[in-house]
Amino acid sequence: DGLLALGRRAEAQIWLSRALEAQKAGSVKVLAECLAELRKPERASVPVVAAAMPRLEAALREAQEGKTSLGVKLVDRVAFDSPEDLQQFPEAAGTWQVAAGQAVNNDAARLVRRDAASARSVQVIFTPTALRGQIGIDFKGMRLVLDLAAGQFTAQLANQAGTAPPAAKPCSVVERVPNTLFLAYADTGNHTTVELNGQVIADVVMGDLNEYFAFSAAAGTIVQVDEVSFTRNDSAQPGKQGLRRLGWEPTGAASLDEKASSILLAGTPQAPASILNQVPANTVGYTIEVKGQGAFRIQVGGQGGWQRVDLTLTAGETSRFTVRWANGTFAVLDAQGVPVQSVPLERPVTTVVFQAAGQTAIALPIRPNRQ
Length: 371
What we know:
This protein has 5 helices and 27 strands. Helix 1 packs antiparallel against helix 2 and helix 1 packs parallel to helix 4. The N and C termini lie far apart (85 Å).
């Protein structure tokens, strides 16, 4: 019996060590598997396990809720507006400098988080300073590597690591201007579509899926990362599905309130909420009525770059804004048609985003302005 008990304690210690390693690495799946083993009566009664379990159970709950070990809530859109945004990537490595809406690496570096299991897509906007080195993207079990100097890429599944890499295919990354990389996963057919600057460059049949996301720069690449944004599976959230039926993609706490005939953006400064629309042909702007408080941002984008106007809403007041992009000008006008801001339009507009960092309601319908 003594030998049996000793063996059980040793086995429990092994599972505990694995759990602690998984917690440190941020691997939700492995941590959950280890805790399932440690909860078994013959292991849970071991004193060292009993002492560690409350802390490990709390770490698992935080990880499953999308929180880091520092208690930072992981948000689905990271724009690198402050150095604290690096906390959105708990396993970041190398040296990153964050300023003016960009994260810039000084050496071989990576941004890593482990909440991609529920992600439908990820978009990364990045600007390489020169066409040298490599940029890597890991998403849900696929690794995409862009060879900037060669103008080629490879896509390989995580469960094929150690095998010969697939043949490289051509791609076009532009130096010193923003590039947009978009990866979208579809359950039907278990495949991921890869778009670079609006062009489909690959459609990859996936193997085993995982929760891992990483953006990495290596072999001498210096890159500015402007934005990393995710969309999620929201089958349990009909308010988000309703927004998609209207043609708007929600991010964060954005939902459709059909009774009030409005879109609710329940954002915070740390986790803003937004809606995004791919602009239809012949549309040159939108008119919206907004009620809420706090920061409200209007962004237009195209060909990998963004322009924005930051506004402040006053509690209890309804504001009417018209955003227009035409004749070489990007402008936001108030209810009297007076420009709040008017600047030269830098690029053709394909996307518009309305983002709130407070409790905000946008009245329906959102009216498009046509040419």
